[in-house]
């Protein structure tokens, strides 16, 4: 089952900041500065966390994962916005 996460980061070094951004871009949708929405299964979550652990300085930086529920359930509807409307990404099936 895929879970939806809000992933935020506070990284103090510009080089590490770019590295964290690039890692997250491969796993989710960039919502705002330092905020991504990621829909991950258990394996992807472990993989992403391992990559982020390598990218950050553990005494200076912080990455937070907020579990907002199943990607097909509450996670798909739990984001509200003020100002510019939040438009959820359209989910498409990929047939290989």
TrEMBL record:
Top-level EC class: hydrolase
EC number: 3.1.-.-
Keyword Magnesium set for record: yes
Cofactor(s) needed: Mg(2+)
InterPro entries in the record: CRISPR_associated_Cas2, Virulence_VapD/CRISPR_Cas2
HAMAP family recorded: Cas2 (MF_01471)
Protein name in the entry: CRISPR-associated endoribonuclease Cas2
Organism expressing this protein natively: Pendulispora albinea
